Amino acid sequence: MKKTETTAAEAYARQTDESDPLARYRSQFHVPKTSQGEDCVYLTGNSLGLQPKKTAAYVQQELDDWAKLGVEGHLHAKFPWLPYHENLTEQTARLVGALPSEVVVMNTLTVNLHLMMVSFYRPTKERFRILIEGGAFPSDRYAVASQARFHGFDPAQAITELKPRAGEETLRPEDVLETIERSGDQIALILLGNVNYLTGQAFDVEAITRAGHSKGCKVGFDLAHGVGSLCLKLHEWGPDFAAWCSYKYLNGGPGALGGCFVHERHASRSDLPRFSGWWGHNKKTRFAMGPTFDPILGAEGWQLSNPPIFQMAALRASMEIFDEATMPAIRKKGDLLLEFLERELDRSRRCRIITPRRSAERGLHLSLKFQGRDTQGLVSEFSKAGVTVDFREPDVIRAAFAPLYCNFMDVVRFVKVLESHV
Question: Are 39 and 162 found together in one domain?
Fold first, then answer.
């Protein structure tokens, strides 16, 4: 940066950080340090979020209750384990814009996607295709391919991929809707990552759901990069289901439990096939140990087993912060961070942004390409300079700004390191 430009950028960053209503939340997280003891610029919250400082106390509470109470902790712990997952229900519903009965915290993302596809991917000879985005996260692609094979279809024939136009990096929204209109009669399930992990492109959940339902398709979304980064209105938008992980923006910790949404119109449908487990059984008769499965109405009816309490305690520590900060405020700050970063990168001209520019069409990370550079090696240079970003094959660096702990000076520091190495 030139000196005058550096001064202008830093002045803006410092002033904005000082007036930021969410600034106080940064101190509630453990931010990794450089070898000099300075906070790192942590831009990989889209891979693994940082640990809230109260997480240890929340987990320790359950360890202490286990030590003191043994099995009695299920009923007599400070937060009884038997209904522990219900501590997260209201917060989760507010986070994704759903009714409490439509959400449940359980399992992990790909497990939940499979459970949802058992119920909502019901192919026939005429309607058997699954529509996904080209460049979907590999686990999603593996999951839908295995579901197609399980039903006796060749994945090469059953999977339809949405691909950008020649010379473009992202999908045009009108092309997505046109594909549904043209091929919808053969599509049994539309399953998109509502924010693409590689490009950062966000899809219009409401428009895609409406288009899919008008053609008789079931519609679901992988919210791995959308939950905690976008303001969601799942109940209003009406997809049949959604699933997400909690270790990215939600800061639940490595391998954290995921979540699931099932729209209320499916709450009491006894005709939907599902894989059953006793934790999804009617709570009033669960311990009668009867031979016939009687599902809980709503999303809880898709539960299989009693949940890991320590993982839930860790997630509860973060979800309380989200609930207090609110998603509209988090998203507002995220937009300001990305707009500031865009301005600085445009001025610097050291890389090309492939993520859409419009707020409604992106999550909270920017994907960057560097012409003629060893991109993976560049990530290592960033790390040495105290900036944590990640590399995705073949040539993309992703920089994610989690608004609860990232600030505007992080943008300045990121661009300074970028300009010193590119």
Answer: no
Same domain membership, residue 147 and residue 30: no
- For 206, the token pair is 């409401």
Assigned domain for 54 exists: no
Look up the domain containing 37 and give its range.
3-46+326-421
Cis amide bond preceding 21, omega within 30: no
**Which pLDDT tens digit goes with each residue over 44-59?**
999 999 999 999 999 9
Helix (H, G, I), strand (E, B) or coil at 192: strand
What's the domain count of the chain? 2
Q: Kindly state the tokens that stand for 312.
A: 């839930």
pTM of whole model > 0.70? yes
Give me the sign of the Cα torsion angle 22, 384, 368, 341: positive
Residues 211, 303 within the same domain: yes
pLDDT tens by residue, 365-392 = 999 999 878 888 999 999 999 999 999 9
- The dihedrals phi and psi of 311, each to the nearest 5 degrees, come to -65, -40
- The four Cα atoms 323, 333, 196, 150 give a dihedral, to 10 degrees, of 0
For residue 371, the tally of other CB atoms under 10 A from its CB is 9
